[in-house]
Amino acid sequence: MGMVYVIDKDKVADRSAWKLFVPHRTEVRLDSIGVYASYVALEERQDGLTQIRILSIEGEPCGIDSLRTSLYHQPQGNSMKHDDSAIATRRKSPRFALRI
Strands, E, within 27-94: which ranges? Predict the structure, then answer.
């Protein structure tokens, strides 16, 4: 559930100018999105499992397709910065960073 579009902020009212960035997939729920200087992180759920999909700013996969497991999640409301080069994720015990 969910689609993501990109648009220049001065053209928001013109729906014909919207460009699809993440298409709708019926089997996947988009829980959150993080936009950073060089990549986009999507927290998704599929078949009850959380996965973190990393895309370039152009929408291409960045070599890491997913962390498809029920043990990992991207904490919402964390203190990540726009120009960070790692995504903070949490496992049930230790914290680790996924390097891009």
Answer: 28-35, 39-46, 49-56, 86-90
